[in-house]
């Protein structure tokens, strides 16, 4: 379907956003029709209804999903998110994006994603723990170091992974650290994993500004989202000399043309459980920050924030997608006309899963690397993948996003073809 004929509802549906790019890239690759059919849809979708004893003594039932899009190149891999608006279509899209992301950076994983419809902000730690453990128990035969390896995503963290690892291990009657990644260091986590997605974002921004002839010190950056990805991208980029002029959160934004001291903002957030009221910047409308005058815009929160409604007003020269699916397919065309240099999500935020791969390798080796070794390996992969995507775009005369999809689809497609179809 052409993106110009999409209804607004379709434009904002992440599955449609994924499918539109997949179809376009597959068409440009002249992909075999059968392989196209296999890769267009997930290979397995699991829905679980999870009874949880709440602190009040009442029982609540939550709906959870795990979608495994592909295991062609290795175990399925991808995060688990907790949010009130999680849908199966969203998890499907995110699972497919994981397949493409792992293939773009050429790590030996397929793609998966999980989610539970819940409002974690209204739940206690003990309720979250019981919900996480029951969700893991329901999935116990579908996950595993060689099957499907979950990780943190929106509203889940190292503690969530610790509970998942422990629950799985109790069922297996042995400690299995490599069943999930993004764990605390003491439980088989990797040094550098917490900052990895943000670090990867910085690495590709470095490559993008080099390509456009810009310098860090004169590059103004706006970051949307101050969660795991946005906060560490902003912190590392600030420390590296970029000027972070805007931070946008759902409940308000911050703006300072002279640059925001991100370490001070971290300390403020720690004390106040949010960025509001920070004295080192002016309050600003978060929606307007997306279209503020800057060189780099980093959407690092959720899907569909750059859309047909605001893409025309984006002033950034570089759009670096820290989040999964922050740009709709209809907005792609507008950004292309405006010659915005897009570093697509499946490349820009791949630092997280790449370091998850290192964590999985370290757990299986039982040998843990120094942080500088992790960061060096991450840089190698991100710099190499950036160069491959940009080169592919230039040689095939497509934009960076479609180039990344083509590269990924081609890699996964060749694997499926070579393995053959088991009858
Ligand atoms: N949730 C992250 C992502 O979307 C990390 C996934 C992983 O480490 O497996 O890429």
What does this structure look like?
- The chain has 423 residues and is α/β, with parallel strands linked by helices.
- Among the domains are: 44-175, Rossmann fold; 196-348, Rossmann fold (3-Layer(aba) Sandwich).
- The protein has 15 helices and twelve strands.
- A seven-stranded mixed sheet has the order 9-8-7-6-10-11-12.
- Helix 4 links the parallel strand 3 (76-83) and strand 4 (111-117).
- Helix 2 packs across helix 15, helix 4 (88-104) crosses helix 15 and helix 7 (193-212) crosses helix 14 (371-396).
- It is globular.
- The mean pLDDT is 97.
- The structure holds glutamic acid (GLU).
Descriptive key words:
alpha/beta, 423 residues, binds glutamic acid, 46% helix, Rossmann fold, five-stranded mixed beta sheet, seven-stranded mixed beta sheet
């Amino acid at each position: 379907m052409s993106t110009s004929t999409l209804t607004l509802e379709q434009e904002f549906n992440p599955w449609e956003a994924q499918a539109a790019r997949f179809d376009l890239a597959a068409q440009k690759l002249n992909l075999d029709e059968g392989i196209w059919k296999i890769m267009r849809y997930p290979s397995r979708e699991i829905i679980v209804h999870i009874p949880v004893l709440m602190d009040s003594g009442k029982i609540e039932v939550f709906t959870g999903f795990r979608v495994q899009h592909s295991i062609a190149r290795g175990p399925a891999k991808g995060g688990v998110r907790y949010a009130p608006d999680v849908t199966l279509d969203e998890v499907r899209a995110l699972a497919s994006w994981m397949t493409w992301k792992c293939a773009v950076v050429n790590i030996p994983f397929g793609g998966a994603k999980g989610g539970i419809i819940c409002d974690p902000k209204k739940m206690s730690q003990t309720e979250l723990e019981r919900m996480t453990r029951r969700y893991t128990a329901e999935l116990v035969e579908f996950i595993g170091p060689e099957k499907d390896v979950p990780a943190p995503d929106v509203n889940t963290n190292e503690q969530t992974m610790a509970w998942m690892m422990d629950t799985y291990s109790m069922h297996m009657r042995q400690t299995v650290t490599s069943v999930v990644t993004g764990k605390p260091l003491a439980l088989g986590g990797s040094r550098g994993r917490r900052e990895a997605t943000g670090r990867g974002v910085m690495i590709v921004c470095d490559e993008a500004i080099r390509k456009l002839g810009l310098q860090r010190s004169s590059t103004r950056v706006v970051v949307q989202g101050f969660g795991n990805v946005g906060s560490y991208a902003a912190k590392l980029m600030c420390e590296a000399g970029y000027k972070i002029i805007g931070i946008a959160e759902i409940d308000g934004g911050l703006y300072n043309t002279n640059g925001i001291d991100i370490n001070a903002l971290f300390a403020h957030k720690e004390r106040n459980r949010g960025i509001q009221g920070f004295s080192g910047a002016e309050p600003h409308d978060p929606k307007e920050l997306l279209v503020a005058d800057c060189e780099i815009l980093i959407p690092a929160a959720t899907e569909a924030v750059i859309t047909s409604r605001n893409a025309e007003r984006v002033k950034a020269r570089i759009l670096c997608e820290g989040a999964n699916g922050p740009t709709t397919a209809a907005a792609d065309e507008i950004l292309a006309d405006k010659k915005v240099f897009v570093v697509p999500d499946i490349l820009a935020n791949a630092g997280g899963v790449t370091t998850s791969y290192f964590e999985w390798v370290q757990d299986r080796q039982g040998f843990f690397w120094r942080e500088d070794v992790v960061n060096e390996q991450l840089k190698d992969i991100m710099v190499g993948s950036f160069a491959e995507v940009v080169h592919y775009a230039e040689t095939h005369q497509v934009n960076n996003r479609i180039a990344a999809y083509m590269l990924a689809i081609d890699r996964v497609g060749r694997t499926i073809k070579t393995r053959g179809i088991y009858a």
